[in-house]
């Protein structure tokens, strides 16, 4: 079936019930210990950034759907902007974030 063949009321219900998605972005970061052949730890540090989103691809399908869905998705997107992303890192690798030469000190 074609989505646009549905009555507007049903399409609006679909826009309102679009689920939030949890997105995991995993980075493998080489550390000083991984470049040292005498080190016991040979794996790079793995950091996972966890964020939430909604499927905005729907807005790119056509102008009519964009115009209909935009007013229902914008409040959700505004709410997501205020949420802090989460970081997952193994406890033994936390120093790669916080050290003087760690990732966070390079970013800020």
Task: Offer a few descriptive terms.
alpha+beta, 5 helices, 108 residues, three-stranded antiparallel beta sheet
Largest sheet: 3 strands, antiparallel
Annotation field: number of helices: 5
Q: How many discrete structural domains?
A: 1
Order of helices and strands: HEHEHEHH
Low-confidence runs of at least 5 consecutive residues? none
Helix content: 25-40%
> Mean of residue pLDDT?
82
Which of globular, elongated, flat, extended, rod-shaped describes the shape? elongated
Widest sheet: strand ordering: 1-2-3
- Could you tell me the strand content as a percent range? 15-25%
Could you walk me through the main structural features you see in this protein, from its secondary elements to its overall organization?
The protein has 108 residues and is α+β, with helices and mostly antiparallel strands. It has one domain. 38% of the residues lie in helices and 20% in strands. The chain has 5 helices and 3 strands. A 3-stranded antiparallel sheet has the order 1-2-3, with no helix packed on it. Helix 1 packs parallel to helix 3. The chain starts with 7 loop residues before the first helix and ends with a helix. The mean pLDDT is 82.
Give the secondary structure arrangement, pairings included:
Elements: H1 8-16, E1 21-29, H2 32-35, E2 45-53, H3 63-81, E3 86-89, H4 95-98, H5 103-107
Antiparallel strand pairs: 1-2, 2-3
Organism: Massarina eburnea CBS 473.64
Domain 2EXR: 2-89
InterPro entries: 2EXR (IPR045518)
